[in-house]
Amino acid sequence: MPKPKKPVIEYRHYSLPIDFPVLLLSGERWKISDMKSEHLHFHNHMEIGICYSDGGVMEIKGENVPFRAGDVTFLPRYLPHTTYSSPNTASRWAYLFFSPEELFQHSLKTPQSNMEPNLRAIQAGRCVLHKDQYPKVYMLATSIVEEIQRQTPFYRESAYGLLMSLYIELLRIHASDENGLSREQKLELEQMRETERQSRQPDLVISPALEFITRNYMMPVTIDELAELCHLSTTHFRRKFHEIMGTTPLDFLNSTRVEEACKRLKSTDASVLSISEQVGFRSISSFNRCFARLMGESPKAWRTGTHMEAQSAKASILAFTGWV
Predict the structure, then answer these.
(1) 164 lies in a domain?
(2) Which of 84, 133, 219, 220 is most buried, judged by most C-beta within 10 A?
(3) Strand 55-60 relative to strand 46-51: parallel, antiparallel, unpaired?
(4) Strand partners, 94
(5) Average pLDDT of each block of 10 consecutive residues along the chain (324 residues)?
(6) Residue 32, CB half-sphere, CA atoms under 13 Å: how many?
(7) Is there a single domain that holds both residue 228 and residue 171?
(8) 276: nearest Cα among 295, 290, 261
């Protein structure tokens, strides 16, 4: 019997606005076709989606979860998924992308390691929430979209407060899944999940490396260390990383550092040398060289330009199969 074909997993990168790091994608442009993509994809930021019309299926962690108008979807970064509408329909969506650690670092007292659900523990069915069962989630999500769309005075402050309330609600929903279970029930649940993981497409194998880079890009990072986090040999890790990300681990690390440098160049008065050191480069020459290669100009020139986003050489996902 031939082995089942493994789905292709694609990385799709969003750059957030520097002045208010929340990205809204909405309007007629954001309709999902009824064509099922053969590829799963994942993002570099948390995704919250609102379905305004029709319905369909979202594939998450090997499970097919139905959705319909009025649903709010909640997908942590690096969680592979795909979405397609019911036959002969094109569901309309709005999407919010943001990084909880970056956005709420000065507001929430929760340790950063607990600010996103554990990808291995998250239940696919809990990623799709209907307004009838979770009216508060739907109200908060739609209110955020309206605030950002209208841009009336103090809309950022209002959207920020609403988004933090929404995020807390979502964390509570996921935390409640296992609260109240006995130790034996939790062990049984984990055994069931392990059986499921072995019988279907596993979680993204390089996600531990991606998470580590996201949280520790400013520190010295070795390929061997990243491979060990993923329980892979260095050679296999390099090959798997390039297969999924379309780039090498070192290039991804440097592009992460450059993107963070862009934010600091625009939002602080720190010197270029200081910023290069803050984001993990060991010499100003290597920083300047890497920055110019990715951004097309020097850090000094970029700082004085009119850039609203830290657009890097990472892939854009504004157009891909499945959107109509």
Answers:
(1) yes
(2) 84
(3) unpaired
(4) 50
(5) 61 85 91 88 92 95 92 92 94 95 80 60 86 96 97 96 94 72 57 48 77 92 94 93 89 92 90 95 94 91 72 37 34
(6) 27
(7) no
(8) 261
- The pLDDT of residue 244: 85
For residue 129, the model assigns a pLDDT of: 95
Tell me which residue has tokens 């409640």. 176
- Cα dihedral across residues 205, 23, 99, 214: positive or negative: positive
- One domain for residues 159 and 212: no
Decide if 48 contacts 72 (C-beta within 8 A).
Answer: yes
Residues for the chain: how many in total? 324
Full domain range(s) for residue 214: 205-313
**Dihedral angle sign, alpha carbons of residues 99, 123, 206, 110:** positive
**Residue 187: per-residue pLDDT:** 62
Structure-token pair, residue 146: 């309206």
**55 exposed, middle or buried (CB, 10 Å; 0-12, 13-18, 19+)?**
middle
225, 215, 216, 312: which is closest to 261 by C-alpha?
Answer: 312
d(CA 201, CA 52) in angstroms, rounded, equals 30
Q: What is the spatial distance between Cα 252 and Cα 102, in angstroms, rounded to a whole number?
A: 19
Q: What is the pLDDT of residue 23?
A: 94
